[in-house]
Amino acid sequence: MRWIGPRYTAVLGFGILAFCFASEGKAQIPVPNEPAEINACVCLQAASAAFAADKDAKSQALTAANQQLANLDAQLASARSGIDINNPDSVARYKALLERRDAAYGQISPAQSVAAAAVARYNASVGEYNQRCAGRPFNSELVAQIQAHPNCPPLR
Fold it and tell me: Residues 6 or more apart from 139 whose CB is under 8 A from it?
């Protein structure tokens, strides 16, 4: 067996040290801690939450309008069989119910448009947050400070 001399040992040691320092430098991920970037992300997160609440409210309004329409359709179906065409009061009640149903039907399309716009705003906000902020290694102390007092523009 051959013996490794001190000169080779020193070269090998320096090589290992150089490799370790090079690997350590590459392993460190720079942590962006720019307050403006963090503030923008905090504001995008808050906007997404506000848009989510608005989206949910618009969705509930659409659901309520659809339920009201379904209820009036059911009332019309049951009233249709019991209408007495020779009784003006019976015909008037049926026509009034039909007008209420038509008015409820007229509210569906605008409610759908409003709900779709709210979903689009929410999706755009989440998409922008994901693109700019998701998975970014921010300084947690700085994030907490900015979250306490963010400087956000008004929602659009």
Answer: 31, 33, 38
27 domain-assigned: no
24 part of a folded domain: no
Note whether residue 57 is domain-resident.
Answer: yes
User: Is-contact 58 118, C-beta < 8 A?
Assistant: yes
Instruction: Find out whether 33 and 138 touch, Cβ atoms under 8 Å.
Output: yes
Residue 21 tokens read as: 């320092």
- How open is the CA angle 71-59-44, to the nearest 5 degrees? 175
pTM above 0.85, yes or no: no
Q: Could you list the residue range(s) of the whole structural domain that residue 134 is in?
A: 33-148
In angstroms, how far is CA 129 from the centroid of its own chain?
9
The pLDDT tens digits for 13-48 are 444 444 444 444 444 455 555 899 999 999 999 999
| Chain centroid to CA 119 | 8
Total domains, the chain: 1
